[in-house]
Amino acid sequence: MQPKPKPDEFDILVGKNLFAIRNIRGVSQKQLADAIGVSFQQVQKYEKGVNRLSAVRLYRASKLLKTDLYRFFEGDEEETSNRDAVDFLKLDKQTLEMIKAFEKITDKKLRRNFLNIFKKLNN
Q1: Average pLDDT over every residue of 112-116
Q2: Which of the four pLDDT bands, split at 50, 70 and 90, describes residue 85?
Q3: What is the pLDDT of residues 41-57, one digit of tens each?
Q4: Dihedral angle computed from the Cα positions of residues 108, 112, 114 and 120, in that order, rounded to the nearest 10 degrees
Q5: Where are the alpha helices (DSSP H) in the chain?
Q6: Domain boundaries, the chain
Q7: Which fold is adopted by the domain 1-90?
Q8: 68: Cβ–Cβ under 8 A, 6 or more apart, which residues?
């Protein structure tokens, strides 16, 4: 029996982004699993990068999570500036709640105003 190969770095990146987007959208692993036709345990493996998502399942996930496909691929070696922005595993609960609340604001002007206020508070 051959040893199991290590997860590919790119599969780990896609999995982290899937985890982050799913949590921001408030979607459970079970809901995602049902939408893409797998078990929630399989979703856990995708999020850890242990298993690779097929194109069809990635597409279905993007529809459920209301995100563009490219969001799953942000932060690769060529985009190191985005690595911290998409690594939501390091965020505390309060920060994640703030991101979720911001995502629910549909008025573009209100979003821009909120962002400007937040930036001023950090200066």
Answers
A1: 89
A2: very low
A3: 999 999 999 999 999 99
A4: 180
A5: 9-25, 29-36, 40-48, 55-64, 83-86, 93-103, 108-121
A6: 1-90, 92-123
A7: 434 Repressor (Amino-terminal Domain) (1.10.260)
A8: 62
